[in-house]
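Pilot study result, target chain (150 residues):
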Amino acid sequence: MKKIKLLLVDDEENFVNTLSERLKMRDVPSRVVYSGEEALEAVQSDAPDVVVLDLRMPGIDGMEVLRKVRKSNPEVRVVILTGHGNEAIEEEVKKLGAFHYHKKPVEIDELLGTVKKAYRDKLDDAMVAATFAQAGAFDEAHDILNEDKD
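Predicted structure:
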């Protein structure tokens, strides 16, 4: 099975580096960036399958990163992992297209389970779109792959 291309985004360098190491020990390597600006560059240069994204960061915050990623790369699944959330923020990020929302601290196995579900969801959409395309329903295939792009 192909490895998940995972991008971790958090301005708390010690936290995100530790998270990356813990995921690597579970055979899920990741790329780490420390700002919203770096996250957007990483998505454009080598789109990941899944992004684990903090919300509160200096510069471009996680909410704006989420908006831009969902618009430019709707196939990328975004999992929010924040220490500064509440129910209203959770509702907002889900409306913006976040795959899932976790509050810090989260158990590593719970987060890993969410990342794997997000990856499977991405693959499922790609397989359904390919089936439509193979049947000649190119507009429907396009719509499936770009359903959250509006």
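One observation from the pilot: The helical segments are 13-25, 36-45, 62-72, 87-95, 108-134, 138-145. A full batch analysis is planned for the follow-on phase.
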